[in-house]
Amino acid sequence: MEKHDSNSRLVYTSAAGRMCPVCGYPKDGCRCSRKEAGKVRGDGRVRVERQTKGRKGKGVCLITGLPLNDEELKELARELKQSCGTGGTVKDGIIEIQGDHRDALVDELRKRGYEARKSGG
């Protein structure tokens, strides 16, 4: 008889493929991701920083801490991209806007009622 400790969990089966480490269901039918879709991610401290790490010298502005769920983040990102006239995306609750638009983004976020601050150098 095999012993299983409380820290071991199933991550892959040949029948179902990848398994969610949190709920234990197959990734396609994961119950956690559905719950997190409506979950607010940010802490309310809105920070706008510039980052070039891992982007071959190309800079992006990262907006973190927004107290919005995934759908609201995507909508806000779309509007911010239009106001800056550039591209961007939303990844893991962080809005990425291409280029260095920190001042414009901080101003736009403050107009929308957020206490936005520039972060980093």
Describe this structure in words.
This protein is α+β, with helices and mostly antiparallel strands. The protein folds into 2 domains: 8-37, no CATH class; 46-119, SUI1-like domain (Translation Initiation Factor Eif1), CATH 3.30.780. 26% of the residues lie in helices and 23% in strands. It is built from 3 helices and 7 strands, in the order E-E-H-E-E-H-E-E-H-E. The chain has helices spanning 31-37, 70-84, 102-111; strands spanning 12-13, 17-18, 46-51, 60-64, 88-91, 94-98, 116-119. Strands 5-6-4-3-7 form a 5-stranded mixed beta sheet, with helices on one face. A two-stranded antiparallel sheet has the order 1-2.
Offer a concise description of the structure.
Helices cover 26% and strands 23% of the residues. It is built from three helices and seven strands.
Features:
two-stranded antiparallel ribbon; five-stranded mixed sheet; 3 helices; alpha+beta; 121 residues; single chain; 2 domains; Translation Initiation Factor Eif1; 23% strand
- Low-pLDDT runs of 5+ residues are none
The fraction of residues assigned to DSSP E strands is 15-25%
> How far apart are the first and last residues' alpha carbons, in Å?
58 Å
Q: What would CATH call the class of the largest domain?
A: Alpha Beta
> Total domains, how many?
2
Order of helices and strands: EEHEEHEEHE
Tell me which CATH architecture of the largest domain applies here: 2-Layer Sandwich
Structural class: alpha+beta
Main β-sheet, spatial strand arrangement: 5-6-4-3-7
Helix content: 25-40%
Largest sheet: 5 strands, mixed
Q: What is the residue-mean pLDDT, rounded to a whole number?
A: 81
Number of helical elements:
3
CATH superfamily of the largest domain: SUI1-like domain
